[in-house]
């Protein structure tokens, strides 16, 4: 009997992808490994983005031909599974327990288990019979204020860009959304699922964020806590701490320190150098909540003062410019 590794049966890539996916995407015939995905993302960032879906945005009687692009990319460090004894990478084998042999991707089909141990295969031709218009369409049903959508519903971000023939209508929709402060609620079928999504202006394109449905958000009923006897002084102290640490959001200011440290550790292992020293224990633990808040407020006062000093010259310059305009 041939050796094999225990692995979860992989999910096959969608033959349709919910729209007209690129031929290259459909023709791969298998999912990429984590290493292949990482290489693909690094290579993709250096060339023109490749659309993963094409269809139309539909609202009222208007249809805008568009292409869909992924908006994010992973920079995670990916590990391989090795045989502990000899360090050889293990292989994920699609194993048929009946024939007792591995199965190539060309002989793999998708199937749904409708009763225990009984499966029905689903082919690309079967999916052509889906009576759902969102297979090729971002179907807009409502326009809402963006602040009404709680961030807990956000799932994955994409970009929408127009086909050449739909550029004017696309720009019209984007500008109308900008001026009204609204976002479009729609549905679209991507990768074997009809997703709820939110379409909104983002820079010179439209962002399409897939959303969780209401029944996919778990209730907080069993983990909720009451006010737990919080005093007004504690609340005011917490507000002071928040105000000291308040600033405008600048995503460029934040970096994945864990990934940087992990790469440094891997580099040391490769070079046979000493591993980085673990972080020292933090200061003495403060049990009293009020004391902890007071100490935190004091520690952050200088930070708040420094931020105020940085912004003051800008504010003063704007005030002087404003007075000059008025006198003119």
Key attributes of the depicted protein:
7-stranded mixed beta barrel, 7 helices, extended, 31% helix, two-stranded antiparallel ribbon
CATH class of the largest domain: Mainly Beta
Strand order within the widest sheet?
1-2-8-11-10-9-7
Q: What is the CATH architecture annotation of the largest domain?
A: Beta Barrel
Percentage of β-strand residues? 15-25%
Secondary-structure element pattern, one letter each: HHEEEEEEHEEHEEEHHH
The total count of helices amounts to 7
- The count of domains is 2
Classify the secondary structure makeup into a structural class.
alpha+beta
Radius of gyration: 27 Å
Our measurement of the CA-to-CA distance between the termini, rounded to an integer number of angstroms, reads 91 Å
Overall description:
With 328 residues, the protein is α+β, with helices and mostly antiparallel strands. The protein has two domains: 23-215, Ku70, Chain: A, Domain 2 (Beta Barrel), CATH 2.40.290; 232-327, no CATH class. 31% of the residues lie in helices and 23% in strands. It is built from seven helices and eleven strands. The protein has helices spanning 23-27, 34-44, 124-127, 167-180, 232-244, 257-271, 289-327; strands spanning 53-59, 62-70, 95-96, 101-102, 110-115, 118-122, 137-145, 154-162, 182-190, 193-202, 205-211. The protein has a seven-stranded mixed β-barrel. A two-stranded antiparallel ribbon has the order 3-4. A hairpin with a 2-residue loop joins strand 5 (110-115) and strand 6 (118-122). Helix 5 (232-244) crosses helix 7 (289-327). The longest helix has 39 residues, at 289-327. The chain is extended and about 65 Å long. The termini are far apart. The relative contact order is 0.10. Residues 1-35 and 314-328 have low confidence and may be disordered.
